[in-house]
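Take a look at this chain, tokens included, and explain the fold to me:
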Amino acid sequence: MTDSHPEQQAYTLRAIAEYMGLDPLKRIVRQPGVRAVYRVTIYHHDRRALDSVATLRRDTLNEAVLSLVYEGMFHSKPLIHIIPAERYEVFTLALQKLHFDHIADQPGIPLYGLDFWMIERAAGTFVKSVIVAPQTANGIHAELVATLKTHLPEALREIARTP
């Protein structure tokens, strides 16, 4: 396996959301009342589970809603989870402590053979994304993976692909 350029993984991951008919973060964050949007897109290299896109948005009423869409399931209708304000705040604070907006994509990710996650944050006109391979993440990238597992486990739930 050779190292790839992050734009190849970014293209693959963004294509998942596009295939599911989901709006890009730039469009979502411009909707009236939306303050911030986070998205976790998961690609399973071995096809053991359905690829998924979890979008967490917070509006001016301080309601945080997590929409979870799985490839080919439920006719692209999202599963909805209301995230309590306190939990949302703890999640965003954890990302701030990691200096998420300054984290680069995980270096040395091969072109294939691993699962990929793209974690994105959008607010106003700002959009930031970080790509990780959770199986090989170390350092700050492992901390980012642990933060998601701890504070937003719904976004990581897998649905096995059926033959």
